[in-house]
Structures are given as structure tokens and as C-alpha cells.
């Protein structure tokens, strides 16, 4: 395996791009050095800029020594090959962490469409629909199952921070923005997410961005 | 790591459940012993049966020694931990294989919704929409990129069969059912998929199933 000399993560707006946040959090927690390239979404030249980096025209994209790796989950797996502690070390916990990560990756369309991430926003209202209620209940079940099975002392879903937490961090942000009433486990987990230094640094950067996008209209989910 | 003594894959109808096919193909190619439990979808007692096995109420689900692992991609990763050759051995090829597998896992909603898998069907028509055209073109690009980069002799996307192929096998089935005109690479890749002995055995079982589901209506994708 060639030693990696350069690592660039291409991301969208920190305020809006939940998939960028996922990959970025994992890279930040990995301790590996990386640069970031931010491409503001929904601008006139967005597609032109994306074409330079991304075969699927989506963010995030990781470029390691000129090799392009796309899709947040594939990027996370690539980073975890270099820093295995990003998955739980126990094989059963690791399989479950991959299950909940993949469930987030492919599902929860009601949450993703009806509650788009907007880190700067507070006190947003969202109309509760049956699909949204099912999604929220399932998320609360996942968080409770993980927390009850894996730890009482360490605060992340599987004890130490893992890729599963990166996948659910944007959901924590949404629950806070839209005032979703969870339960004690959810409250405490959301607090864990927001007390993470890397999450704090991402959020601060989101507050400094100037772009305003009507995410519900253009469907950045 | 505990030696696995029992391995059960819970699947849906072989004719319709494309996600079940993906996990099943990987398990079949792994050479690991497993049993299968088939739950016919869209029946009166489907949910009741699913509740016994599946925390997300979806198929497929893998149960190893009583441990439940869900989501096709997480199931594939779990099997690949036991049979690493299910991913390409070269780290760059492996990262790309994970990128295209994850892209299938989370995307292509037009193909999944407008061209539901129906292995028994032939000569189906589908109205071409801009979204469907974009999806089809992207799939053809992925197949061409993989095939041109990784092999001229071995017929799968990354040379030998990998999890990426399992992710795209149901797309090959759909292209055949709906008569999608691809290119020489696509034609040859679809032929590779259908000449696989495990794919043949799954298809034969699909032809023996009696259930008829209006997949477009209920949205098994």
C-alpha cells in the first residue's frame, strides 16, 4: 500500500450539507492530516466546480494522492482502514454499528426531506406526518438500543466515538433545530454530539458562512 | 472472535426483493454455510413475521448465532470480514468498489421506483423520464469505468466477483426486463451476471414462486 501523502476532503456548505459533515467528522476524529475544499452548493458555478472533483456530482468526495473516493460511507470505510478504532473493536458491536450506519445511509427519507439540516436555525417548526413520526421513533429506538447495549460510562452510541456517531450527528442537529421531543437518552446523546470539539468547530464555521439556501426547495438532504 | 455456528439469512420474495438478492449473492459466493428463511412480502402476516427477525422491519437480515445484522451493505461487510476476498485485495480498487456499492445503496431512486425488479417479467415498457435517464447514464458510466480500469480478462466489475457486483446484479436484471439499451460493456456485463451459477439458481427459484405483487403500487424497491 502506497503511503498517503495528500488527503483532500471536498465538502459543501457547513450549514446545510449533512453528508459532508458525516465524512468530515470521521476524518477529524481520525487524527489524519487533511485539507478541505468547500464548494458552496446551489450557486451558478457549483456544477462546474463539482465536475472537477466528483464523479457523481455530489459531496463529500475524498481525494487521496489523486485517487477519488466518493459516498460518505465508502469514505468512512477508507479512513477506518487507516484508523481501525473508528469502528468498535468487538466484531458484534462493529457489525451492529455498520447496520445502524447503513440504515442512516439509505433510509429516513422523511427526516431527510422534511427536516433538512440547518445548523444556524433554531425553533423551526415542522408538520408532523405519519412517515416522519415513524422515522423519529425508529431513530430514538436505535439510540436507546445502542446506548443500553454498549455503555453506561462512555457517551457515544457504541461507547467511544465511531462512524455510527458521525452518521447520526446531523440527526442530532436536526432534532435540536426542529425541537423534536425525544427522551432522556436522546437528550443526553444530542448533548454529547454538541459537546464534541470537532462538531463545535464545524458549527462555528457554519455560523460564519454567508450563503442562504432554501434547502426545502432544492432538496439538499 | 466466537466461531460462528449458525447463519440464517432472512429474505423476501426472490422475484421482487432486490435487496435480498444482493445479500444472498454475497453469502452464496462466500462459500460459508447458511440457511435461508423466506418471508413473502405484502401478505397479511408479513409484518408479524418480520417483527420476529428484523428491527427495521425490512429484509434482508442476517442472524449469526442469534446476533441480528441488518441492512444489505452491513451484512455484506460482515460476511467480508470472514471472507475478505469479497472485496478487491488492492486498497485503491477496494475503496472504489465501496464507493460504487455505497452509491447504489443510497441512490438511484428513479431506477428503483420506476423499474422495480421483477425477474420473471420480460419486455416491460417504462416511460423514460429525465431522472431515469440520468440514473441509467450514471450506471453505464460506473460499469464502463470499473471494467476499463480493472480488467480485460476477468468479467466482473473489479475483475473477480465482489460485493460491488452483488449491488449491481439487480440492476442488470432490471435492464434486461425493461429492455434498457446500454452499450457493449453493459451487454457483456449483464451476460456475466446472468451466467453466474448463484444468480441462475436465484432466478430459477423466482420462477417457481407463486405470489404476484404489484410492486409499483406498494413500492418494494
Oligomer type: homodimer
Uncertain segments of chain A = none
How many helices of chain A?
A: 10
Q: Give, in order, the helices and strands of chain A.
A: EHEHEEHHHHHHHH
Q: What average pLDDT do the residues of chain A reach?
A: 93
How do the strands line up in the largest sheet of chain A?
A: 2-1-3-4
Q: Over the alpha carbons, how many angstroms does the gyration radius of chain A reach?
A: 17 Å
Strand proportion of chain A, as a percent range, falls in 5-15%
Structural class of chain A: alpha+beta
Number of strands of chain A: 4
Overall 3D shape of chain A: globular
Helix proportion of residues of chain A, in percent? 40-55%
The CA-CA distance between the termini of chain A, in Å, is 35 Å
Largest sheet of chain A: 4 strands, mixed
Q: Main interface pair?
A: A-B, 29 and 29 residues
What are the defining features of this structure?
homodimer; 221 residues; alpha+beta; four-stranded mixed beta sheet; 10 helices; 53% helix; 8% strand; globular
Write structural notes for this entry.
Two copies of one chain form a homodimer. Chain A is an alpha+beta fold and 221 residues long. Helix content of chain A is 53%, strand content 8%. In chain A, strand 1 (7-11), helix 1 (18-30) and strand 2 form a beta-alpha-beta unit. Chains A and B meet through strand 4, helix 3, helix 4 and helix 6 of A and strand 4, helix 3, helix 4 and helix 6 of B.
SSE diagram, text form:
2 copies of one chain form a homodimer.
Chain A lengths: L6 E5 L6 H13 L4 E4 L7 H8 L7 E4 L2 E4 L1 H11 L8 H16 L2 H6 L15 H21 L12 H15 L6 H12 L1 H12 L6 H4 L3
Parallel strand pairs in A: 1-2
Antiparallel strand pairs in A: 1-3, 3-4
Helix pairs in contact in A: 1-3, 1-7, 4-7, 7-8
Amino acid at each position: 500500500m502506497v503511503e498517503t501523502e495528500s488527503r483532500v476532503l471536498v465538502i459543501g456548505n457547513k450549514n446545510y450539507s449533512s453528508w459532508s459533515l458525516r465524512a468530515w467528522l470521521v476524518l477529524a476524529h481520525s487524527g489524519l492530516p487533511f485539507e478541505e475544499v468547500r464548494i458552496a452548493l446551489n450557486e451558478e458555478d457549483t456544477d462546474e466546480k463539482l465536475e472537477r472533483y466528483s464523479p457523481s456530482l455530489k459531496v463529500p468526495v475524498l481525494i487521496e494522492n489523486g485517487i477519488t473516493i466518493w459516498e460518505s460511507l465508502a469514505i468512512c470505510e477508507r479512513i477506518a482502514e487507516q484508523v481501525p478504532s473508528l469502528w468498535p473493536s468487538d466484531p458484534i458491536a462493529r457489525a451492529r454499528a455498520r447496520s445502524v450506519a447503513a440504515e442512516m445511509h439509505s433510509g429516513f427519507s422523511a427526516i431527510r426531506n422534511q427536516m433538512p439540516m440547518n445548523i444556524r436555525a433554531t425553533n423551526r417548526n415542522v408538520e408532523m406526518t405519519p412517515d416522519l413520526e415513524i422515522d423519529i421513533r425508529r431513530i430514538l429506538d436505535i439510540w436507546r438500543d445502542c446506548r443500553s447495549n454498549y455503555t453506561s460510562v462512555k457517551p457515544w452510541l457504541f461507547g467511544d466515538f465511531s462512524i455510527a456517531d458521525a452518521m447520526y450527528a446531523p440527526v442530532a442537529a436536526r432534532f435540536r433545530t426542529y425541537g423534536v421531543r425525544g427522551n432522556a437518552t436522546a437528550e443526553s446523546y444530542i448533548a454529547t454530539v454538541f459537546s464534541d470539539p470537532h462538531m463545535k468547530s464545524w458549527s462555528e464555521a457554519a455560523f460564519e458562512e454567508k450563503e442562504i439556501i432554501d434547502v426545502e426547495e432544492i432538496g439538499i438532504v
